Amino acid sequence: MVGVHGPMLTSDFNFTLPKSLIAQYPSKQRDASQLLCVSGESKQDLLFRDLPSLMRKHDVLVLNDARVLKARLFGVKESGGQVELLIERILDDHHALAQVRASHVPKQGCQILVAEQLSITVLGREREFLCVRFDSKECVAALLEQYGQLPLPPYITHTANLEDEDRYQTVYSCQPGSVAAPTAGLHFDDPMLAALRSQGTQLTYLTLHVGAGTFQPVRVENVRDHVMHKERYTISQETIDAILQARARGGRVIAVGTTSLRALESAAQQGKFHSGNGETSIFITPGYQFKVVDVLLTNFHLPKSTLLMLACAFGGMKSVLSAYSHAVERGYRFFSYGDAMLIERQLI
Predict the structure, then answer these.
(1) With b meaning 16 or more CB within 10 Å and e meaning fewer, what string describes 218-243?
(2) What are the φ and ψ backbone dihedral angles of 100, each rounded to 5 degrees?
(3) CATH no. for residue 292?
(4) Model pLDDT, residue 1
(5) What is the mean pLDDT of residues 138-155?
(6) Closest Cα partner for 231 from 180, 186, 190, 163?
(7) What is the distance of C-alpha 172 from the center of its chain?
(8) C-alpha torsion sign, points 296, 300, 306, 309
(9) What are phi and psi of 163, to 5 degrees?
(10) CB–CB of 218/267 below 8 Å?
(11) C-alpha 284: how far from its chain's center?
């Protein structure tokens, strides 16, 4: 993983972003966001509602139908200390992995009481997470729905409200298990999906459950030293067939979001594009040879983040960083509730 003048550095992916451009709330309408189209050095400022006009015959859009859990819980230890739990992954009906924020990390056997009713027992540590047991007859998913809060990203400063419970989910979300939204999909509304279908654009779905690690900063300067978190994905044979058919007819594969792209590229790592369940820790940086995706629809990402590195790998580092500068100058809104980019893959 080498840059032009030596090792690829995290600082190579930095840019200056005024705080005023970090979107704190969604646009009034899902499809009212801006859309920056990038193809090499070419840039075009459009609105997201223009997307159907950019589709070509036989194109297929691949969307991530993961649904965000109410994964944030606030509780109290037996000692009286406050604890915040962010459920990273549901393991079974009564067990989960969680990130924990507390003045002192709860030890094995510690009980945490949520809303003076729900008891959670710490069973031990598993890598950077704690394994916890929900001491209830009800399953974890139902308990999160009852006691949990929607886990908005750390750069959104307000507490999740009723609007967020609607707008921080895609309109097609149906597979609970994610702790963050696949945000490129937040721009689609039902009329947009209907318009795409009516003009012959094929829509197909996969599931990748976004983990809390997506917000973790890259803490090393040499990019190759970074270790990616693992995320679960499922791709059906129906989706594989839709992609292969689109390719055979001369259509493009358009990944809606970095999550869809990471799942698709992971499914093609062994030389054969295959369906099924898997875990991916794929780390895509400039120099990566893409195997499946032709076009990426994505939001604007954090400076020095793995997602910005992925976008640079896809559209060309110089082109994407230039597009980010353009977006800042034009006042585009950034991150989860922000605007979108449509990036054409640049051949290496």
Answers:
(1) beeeebeebebbebbbbbeeebbebb
(2) -125, 135
(3) 3.40.1780.10
(4) 38
(5) 95
(6) 180
(7) 15
(8) positive
(9) -60, -40
(10) no
(11) 14
Instruction: Calculate ∠ Cα 295-297-299, nearest 5°.
Output: 145
Q: How far apart are CA 291 and CA 89, in angstroms?
A: 29
Provide the pairing of β-strand 202-209 with 60-64: parallel
Domain co-membership, 188 together with 114: no
- Give residue 6's pLDDT: 56
Q: Counting beta carbons within 10 angstroms of the beta carbon of residue 133, is it exposed (0 to 12), middle (13 to 18) or buried (19 or more)?
A: middle
Q: Is there a contact between 331 and 291 (Cβ–Cβ < 8 Å)?
A: no
Q: Are residues 215 and 340 in the same domain?
A: yes
The CATH number covering residue 133 comes to 2.40.10
CA–CA dist 46, 272 (Å, integer)? 37
**How much is the pLDDT for 347?**
81
Tell me what percent of the residues of the chain surpass a pLDDT of 90.
90
